[in-house]
């Protein structure tokens, strides 16, 4: 325990003929539970970055940079972010679907509530390699209808809306993975990942 010296080239051994630059060391941060969960993470690393407690209403947001040369429509399911303790617990989970659509799914292990953003054309999906997108998944309860409305918002534009009478909520704290360990990972980097147990735009109750 305690502070330790850092040597570039150990004084007790012969040294490699190398030059090191930009040497950094950071201790593992304490996982966050609300607000900004992680500032930067690659889905390929399948990292556990924090914990959140799922709520009936929520707001999940992040910026997603897709690697140049990455095939979005790969014919496979490719994980982006997963909130849940197992593959069957998705609160929510986001994938690139085999055809390149963004697949957002809420799953409690028994019932799945999913939503897609379908691309405009077969080979011209909204998501392109080498590009960066702001992604928001927002779920709010509408007291006038008794329904939950979940919206997918890409770069400020609502691309998909779906409603359900139930939220498929799993109780208790759940881990947050950037890249689910149960699936292939999308070649993306997520930054400024935030989770809030309140919706972005609350749907007002009807006036008496």
Fold and architecture overview:
The protein has strands spanning 35-42, 47-52, 58-66, 78-83, 90-96, 102-107, 112-117, 132-142, 147-154, 157-164, 174-178, 184-185, 188-196. Helices cover 0% and strands 44% of the residues. The chain is mainly β and 208 residues long. The protein has no helices and 13 strands. The model is unreliable at 29-33 (pLDDT under 50). Strands 2, 4, 5, 6, 7, 11 and 12 form a seven-stranded mixed beta sheet that branches. Strands 1-13-3-8-9-10 form a six-stranded antiparallel beta sheet, with no helix packed on it. It is elongated and about 75 Å long.
What are the key terms here?
208 residues, mainly beta, 7-stranded mixed beta sheet, 6-stranded antiparallel beta sheet
């Amino acid at each position: 325990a305690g502070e330790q010296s850092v040597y570039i080239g150990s004084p007790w051994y012969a040294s490699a003929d190398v030059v090191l630059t930009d040497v950094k060391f950071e201790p593992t941060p304490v996982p966050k539970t609300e607000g900004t969960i992680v500032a930067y993470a690659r889905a390929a690393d399948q990292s556990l970055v924090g914990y959140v407690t799922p709520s009936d209403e929520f707001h999940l947001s992040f910026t997603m940079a897709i690697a140049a040369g990455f095939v979005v429509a790969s014919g496979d399911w490719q994980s982006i972010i997963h909130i849940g303790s197992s593959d069957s617990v998705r609160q929510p989970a986001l994938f690139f679907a085999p055809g390149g659509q963004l697949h957002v799914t809420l799953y409690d292990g028994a019932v799945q509530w999913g939503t897609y953003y379908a691309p405009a054309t077969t080979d011209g999906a909204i998501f392109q390699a080498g590009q960066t997108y702001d992604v928001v998944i927002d779920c709010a309860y509408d007291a006038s209808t008794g329904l939950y409305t979940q919206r997918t918002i890409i770069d400020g534009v609502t691309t998909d809306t779906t409603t359900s009478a139930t939220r498929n909520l799993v109780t208790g704290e759940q881990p947050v993975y950037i890249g689910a360990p149960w699936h292939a990972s999308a070649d993306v980097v997520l930054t400024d990942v935030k989770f809030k147990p309140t919706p972005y735009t609350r749907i007002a109750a009807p006036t008496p």
